[in-house]
Amino acid sequence: MIFWVRFWIIFTEVGSRWAGYETHSRS
Fold first, then answer.
1. How far apart are CA 2 and CA 26, in angstroms?
2. pTM, rounded to two decimals
3. Rounded distance, CA 24 to CA 2, Å?
4. How far apart are CA 19 and CA 7, in angstroms?
5. How many other C-beta atoms are found inside a 10 Å radius of the C-beta of residue 27?
6. pLDDT in tens, 1-27
7. What is the Cα 26 distance to its own chain's centre?
8. How far is CA 6 from the centre of its chain?
9. C-alpha 16: how far from its chain's center?
């Protein structure tokens, strides 16, 4: 269970950074 929680946190963090990078790159 902890593994999934940790994976979800990392996934959300990476997704947020990737989205911000994409927006900054397009800008």
1. 36
2. 0.48
3. 33
4. 18
5. 5
6. 889 999 999 999 999 998 888 777 776
7. 18
8. 12
9. 4
